[in-house]
Design brief:
The chain is mainly α. The protein is built from 5 helices and no strands. It has one domain. Keywords: Signal.
């Protein structure tokens, strides 16, 4: 009885592993996550430097992108890009806000 249960588990386990690791972001999700992370971080930086209108534009655009591309792969890549986006200078953040 116990042997049959472990046999079934051995057959199902590789399938579960493939599905769980298959949540990789595609190219469009990676690009969207990159832009959304830059907009998100720049919105925080500009809001701290007394530029609320520019920050509001960036925050709205970041939320719009996130709503359209939400998914497991997107969220993982969004977190990675957010760490990189903190290296942007304040002038680049201003330029991003002005382009929108």
């Amino acid at each position: 009885m116990i042997n049959q249960g472990t046999r079934k588990l051995k057959k199902i386990l590789p399938v579960i592993l493939l599905v769980s690791f298959g949540a990789d972001a595609g190219f469009d999700e990676k690009v969207a996550a990159s832009f959304a992370a830059k907009y998100h971080v720049c919105a925080k930086r500009l809001d701290n430097n007394s530029m609320p209108l520019r920050a509001l534009k960036l925050r709205a655009k970041s939320k719009e992108i996130t709503r359209n591309k939400i998914g497991d792969g997107y969220l993982v890549h969004f977190d990675k890009e957010k760490k990189r986006a903190w290296k942007l200078s304040l002038n680049k953040c201003k330029k991003l806000a002005d382009k929108l």
